[in-house]
Amino acid sequence: MRDLFLIGFLFGLFAMGLRRPFLMVLVYVYIDIVSPQRLTYYLLNAVPISLIAVVAALGGWILTDDKRDSRFTARQGAILLLLIYCAITTYFGADFPIEAADKWSWVWKALAFAVFLPMTLRTRLRVEALLLFVILSLSSIVIVGGIKTLFSGGGYGELNLMVSNNTGFYEGSIISAVAVATIPIILWLMRHGTIFPPDWRVRLFGAGLIFACLLIPVGTSARTGLLCIALLAVLMLRDVKRRLLYIGALAAAGVAVMPLLPASYTERMNTIRTYKGDESASTRLAVWKWTLDYVASNPFGGGFEAYLQNNLRYDLTTVEGSAHDSKVEQKVTTDHARAYHSSYFEMLGEQGWPGLFLWLGINIAGLLRMEALRRRYRRPDDPLLWGGHLAGALQHAHLIYLLGGAFVGIAFNPFLYQLLAAQIGLDTYLARRTREGRQKPPTGRLPPRGKATISAPSA
Fold first, then answer.
1. Helix orientation angle between 124-152 and 172-181, rounded to the nearest 10 degrees
2. DSSP, res 238
3. What is the mean pLDDT of residues 333-358?
4. Do 126 and 120 meet the contact criterion of CB atoms below 8 Å apart?
């Protein structure tokens, strides 16, 4: 029954895409996030639906879309350069060519689609539709995880998000970081959305979805999610009017929630303070140290999956007893082929210093441009005020994602590049609207001849 429902849903989306070709772009976004082929037993997993969707999206744009307002920006050029650089390290410098080719098979699609996607985002409606599809696609995973957390409490590695495949958005730390990162965008849609105009139903669903997003780090017991929630709370201080009241409400909510959290969650969060005794955290530190040593002699990286060659040896420190009567034990632990568990070290180890600096440049440029738009369109009487608010929401989502990326390898996750595409699309659209506003001819009667007039500067 689930197979039939998913097939019917996808068939309906493809059918609507024949009338509105831009919908094919959104179909690909849905497939990229939800991976419905993983959810079926026999039918969809035998059909290349992702390939069909991207061919339909590209073909529809080439054949039918109006391209007068499409722009190729410097950030798209930087993403294209990163794509070319990754191809070079994959085919000419990979330490593990077979494994590198396997990761390259999906990385290049994410990067290539990120170059193409902004050229389709010509209007506010399209930018909003992209974000809405991203949010609703993720909600199909987040809502399931939230319900299971409420009924079972979850646990590290125990929360089943529709499939037992622990990859992509179905991995606990990844979905925790992404779920929290989407909250600023959900809040924007609840206030400024036009596809579903804000009313009590939109606000009720949005509040429920935000609650589910906050439950995901609890259900997965992901420490990354807790840090992302903390950053979200700090970033929201920029937008709230009564900051002291907001801080007080946060403190009261924290006190009220603490007794309700499952014991498995609080125990795992406590390992943040005692990271030297936690094998997962100690392994991360050892892998990061190995990566720095590796690029010291391999500045261009080792290609995708270069971590497979690491051999780790580190001290695991455990403390038992009270502060006055404690027993400290140290044991030497060894490990092999441990993943980077960090987007920054993932880029450094696989693509070297050039790849890391290029990736950081793409992200920093996006953050700076959103800050510029947020400041430019913040006057209450500005008709593009919604754009300034959206720039702030996209910037906050980006910052939360980058914090989560410090502890999980998501440098090439499609969500990041869909976020960047939305930023580029918003930037080019607001720039065009501003130019059109300046070029609009003045209205009203001309002043009498011979009399000087003083005109107000253009907005």
1. 130
2. G
3. 90
4. yes
